[in-house]
Design a protein that fits this description.
With 310 residues, the protein is α/β, with parallel strands linked by helices. It is built from 14 helices and eleven strands.
Length: 310
């Protein structure tokens, strides 16, 4: 299954596992890479030395390419970038910030750079900054989202129309059918997050994995837009946010309710009531916890089967 993305990353399938906070350590990244996709270590929930440890362990667990995702708002980003260079990471996905800040530096070090965007405007800015590819993420996605609330189904063809570099689709994709649909719309590959949250190798708490499996359609919502839009499962914490909004709160009051380490409490420590539970709308189509290799196999087999049937 060769195309611009498989050649860019030197991988077998145009399937990328998203770099997700509290979910994507070296075990998941190496498992996906070993299965023919591109695994990503999510640096957003790691202290610099923890990231170094995960990179080193990933290199021992796979001889295939893998990447590191770096949210550019990370307070210790220079330390993170230095570690990525020192450890010889060959692919970096940047997000949540201006791609011009680090792209040229990383590319001078021989690193392939991909930037995550939520609009045509930012896709063009990323291309102008010199990135090798972009991930265009629709607002169906879990975790932090763009303010435009553009769906994947409309975002992908609009971005495809304007850019020349390879395009990766993300948001609301968890199956081979979804992968094929995204590629028909113009994507060269797909990035999948929520489906890999419920893999054996995901570093998420077992409570959270089961909560994702139990989540049905309509049980997630985009909220906290005054801080950074984030898609959450509706739980006790979500209901507290909803109640606060009826009081026309200030940004400071919203921050006070959110507090610190709310996402860690939910996704990593397993507090399903007071934790922040980030997942995509596609959770309603996820019904089982299984190995990452099986997930990749199922997606690719369904992709090929549906493609033949059409």
């Amino acid at each position: 299954m060769k195309n611009r993305i498989t050649e860019l990353f030197n991988i077998q399938y145009p399937l990328i596992q998203a770099g997700m906070i509290w979910n994507s350590g070296y075990k998941l990244a190496s498992a996906v890479s070993n299965s023919g996709g591109l695994g990503i270590i999510g640096a957003g929930s790691m202290y610099p030395e923890v990231l170094r440890e995960h990179i080193q362990k990933c290199k021992k667990a796979t001889d295939k390419p893998f990447a590191v995702n770096v949210p550019m708002l990370y307070p210790q980003i220079k330390e993170i970038i230095d570690i990525i260079v020192e450890e010889g990471v060959e692919i970096v996905f940047t997000s949540a910030g201006n791609p011009k800040t680090w792209t040229s530096f990383l590319k001078e070090k021989g690193i392939t750079v991909v930037h995550v965007v939520s609009s045509v405007k930012f896709a063009l800015k990323a291309q102008d900054a010199g990135v090798d590819a972009v991930v265009a993420e629709g607002f169906e996605a879990g975790g932090h989202n763009g303010r435009e609330e553009t769906t994947t189904f409309t975002l992908i063809p609009m971005v495809k129309e304007k850019i020349a570099i390879p395009l990766i689709a993300a948001g609301g994709i968890a199956t081979g059918r979804g992968m094929l649909a995204a590629m028909v719309l113009g994507a060269d590959a797909v990035q999948i997050g929520s489906r890999f949250v419920t893999s054996f190798e995901s570093s998420a708490h077992e409570n959270f994995k089961q909560k994702v499996v139990d989540t049905q359609d309509g049980e997630t919502e985009l909220t906290l837009k005054e801080l950074a839009p984030v898609r959450l499962i509706k739980n006790k914490f979500y209901n507290e946010v909803k109640e606060l909004y009826t009081q026309n709160p200030t940004v400071e009051e919203i921050k006070e309710l959110l507090g610190r380490a709310r996402a860690k409490k939910g996704m990593f420590e397993g507090d399903m009531e007071d934790g922040e539970l980030e997942i995509g709308q596609i959770a309603g189509l996820i019904h089982e916890i299984k190995p990452a290799a099986e997930i990749v196999k199922e997606i690719i087999e369904e992709f090929e089967e549906v493609k033949r049937s059409l």
